[in-house]
Amino acid sequence: MDTLPIGASRIGGVPDVPPDFSWPRYKGSPLSYIAQLQLEEVPFGMIDLPLPPRGSLLFFYDSEQRTWGFDPQDRGSALVFFTELPPDKLIRTKAPTDTPEMGLFDCCRIEFEPSMNLPDAWSIHYQPELSDSERDKLFEYFAAYHSKSIGPNHRIGGHADCVQTPMELECQLVTHGLYCGNSTGYEEPRRASLEETAKDWKLLLQIDSDDAASMMWGDVGTIYFWILEGDLRDSKFEHAWLILQCG
């Protein structure tokens, strides 16, 4: 049961929304409510994102997990909703009754902790590209890091903990209409010009599979909400893009 105060940050449970909020849907089904961040609770000194200083961010995703983010037609299957209303102006709202059981999650309180992380070994953030020996050392670092991690790996900002490959270029291509479920989009002539600004994509929120919240993304995977830095600074959170990765 969701017993946290109205507006409090949480994963799962039910959201606190403006009175005129209309629950988002995708292809006839309501989106699942994933998480809520009360921005005044976020320790801004710990993160590298220019988030608004107040208000709430609410995260939603397809309740049937039909989309993975590699198809331009996936637009609308995930949503980041921003409201500037203070908690005392919000109302707690249950998910629509036709939400599939797999799309309902248990409430978990969020505790913010600082964490340092590095880009994936194949990341476009390494310029020039890493040598094989440098990449091997980074693999060793990641193996040691993950061997010490306990529980699910949720993250605000920083670099994504990729289950598969880095996602910045994928976000850039797919949001410009290129299909990335195979090599098609990556072989398009437009790739060269689009790739120049792929680093503008920033990780907004990473939500891991989490037994405590009854969340399972694919086969023990992770969902990632990405946003362009310009859209982030302008609070255009509706332009965010979701990618699901699993092993």
Give a verbal description of the structure:
This protein is 14% helix and 22% strand. Strands 1, 3, 4, 5, 6 and 8 form a 6-stranded antiparallel beta sheet that branches. It has a 4-stranded antiparallel beta sheet with strand order 9-10-11-12. The protein has a two-stranded antiparallel sheet with strand order 2-7. The chain has one domain (10-245): YwqG-like (Hypothetical protein YwqG fold). The two termini are 31 Å apart. The protein is an alpha+beta fold and 247 residues long. The protein has helices at residues 132-148, 168-174, 191-195, 229-233, and strands at residues 10-11, 16-17, 25-26, 29-38, 56-62, 78-83, 91-92, 108-109, 155-156, 201-208, 222-228, 241-245. The model has no long low-confidence stretch (mean pLDDT 95). It has 4 helices and 12 strands.
Here the CATH topology equals Hypothetical protein YwqG fold
Shape, per Cα inertia axes: globular
Order of helices and strands: EEEEEEEEHEHHEEHE
Content-based structural category: alpha+beta
Helix content: 10-25%
Can you tell me the number of structural domains? Answer: 1
CATH class: Mainly Beta
Distance between the termini: 31 Å
Counting H and I runs of at least 4 residues, what is the number of helices? 4
| Beta-strand content estimate | 15-25%
Beta strands, count = 12
Q: Whole-number average pLDDT?
A: 95
CATH architecture verdict: Roll
